[in-house]
Amino acid sequence: MITRLKHAEIDFEAYARRINSSVQNNFYANREVIDLLCGRWDLLVYGDYEYIMPVPLTRKLGLNLVSMPVFIQQLGIFGPEDNVHLNELFLKKLLEIYIVESYSFNTLNTFKSNIGVRKNYIVEQQDYHLLYKKRFLKGRKSVLKKIEGLSVQVKEADRQTESFILRNFKGVKKKQDLVTFIQFIKKFCSKLQMWHVYSEDQLISVAVVTEDSKCYGLLALINDETHRSRNAASFLINEFLQQEIEHKSLDFMGGNIRGIEVFFKSFGADLVTYPVVQHSKKELIYKFLSKIIPN
């Protein structure tokens, strides 16, 4: 039986044990991360926390909706193994009791139901020199050979970093989302790697990298577009792979936009997908009306 728990009803010790021991464990399922980036969320639970599913909530269009927070790519079902039958029960429960704008399961959740998928790209743990020789595309190698005058530093975010992110971060609609992102960096600074690229003393690119027991995750790659010709993003990713890819895989955490997909693939990344549920505004209103108007 799957039950719905409000935030105040969750046993967070049991929650943490299940997340940490699950085969699907990822950085974003940590309670502190969801609390900060989401604010309101429920939990669907099977049995005595045998399987769990965090459900982020928001209010849009005058409706209470399930909607993925801006900086969380995947949540989904967490348990000792991937169980297709239970996954289907969780999906059914989600759609029965909530109005779902968007919900992203994780790459280790599989379904019989025909639901949507989104793209993601991962560079598996391996020897960097073999990766460069066999998997880097010729065009990327050519770009890297021409880069001059750049240096990289891995250090905690400071005021210069924060100012750079606020000026150059693209892809968020609300200023408050950026404020939340800065708060996230400050709160989880000990669990993040902040990679800075400089042209002499000028900061021109920043990467925010998460780390868990299995892999690194590229949460954000922010560039100063006025220095686009310097190819700082290519330089940064290559430097990261040189230093870290022999230790853990790198999850690029994206790839649905064609230009970004090509960029990730040029470093030898492999395509993986994750299941998603998405509904348009029209579909959301229809689902809301169907819940309040009897058949």
Highlighted features:
single chain; 295 residues; alpha+beta; Aminopeptidase; 2 domains; 8-stranded mixed beta sheet; 4-stranded antiparallel beta sheet; 10 helices; 27% strand; globular
What does this structure look like?
- This protein has 295 residues and is an alpha+beta fold.
- It folds into two domains: 2-118 and 274-292, Aminopeptidase; 126-247, Aminopeptidase (3-Layer(aba) Sandwich).
- It has ten helices and twelve strands.
- The chain has helices at 12-21, 31-37, 84-97, 128-134, 138-146, 159-168, 175-187, 232-244, 258-265, 281-292, and strands at 2-5, 40-46, 51-60, 63-66, 102-104, 116-123, 150-154, 192-199, 202-211, 215-223, 249-251, 270-278.
- Strand 2 and strand 3 form a beta hairpin.
- It starts with a strand and ends with a helix.
- Low-pLDDT stretches are none
Supply the CATH architecture of the largest domain.
Answer: 3-Layer(aba) Sandwich
Q: Major sheet: size, sense and barrel closure?
A: 8 strands, mixed
Number of domains: 2
Query: Could you spell the SSE succession in H and E letters?
Result: EHHEEEHEEHHEHHEEEHEHEH
N→C terminal distance: 27 Å
The CATH C-level class name of the largest domain: Alpha Beta
Count helical runs. Answer: 10
- Gyration radius, in Å: 20 Å
Q: Tell me the β content.
A: 25-35%
SS class:
alpha+beta
* Mean pLDDT metric: 92
Strand order, sheet with most strands = 5-12-6-11-10-9-8-7
CATH level-3 fold name of the largest domain: Aminopeptidase
- Helix share bin: 25-40%
* Broad shape: globular
Beta strand count: 12
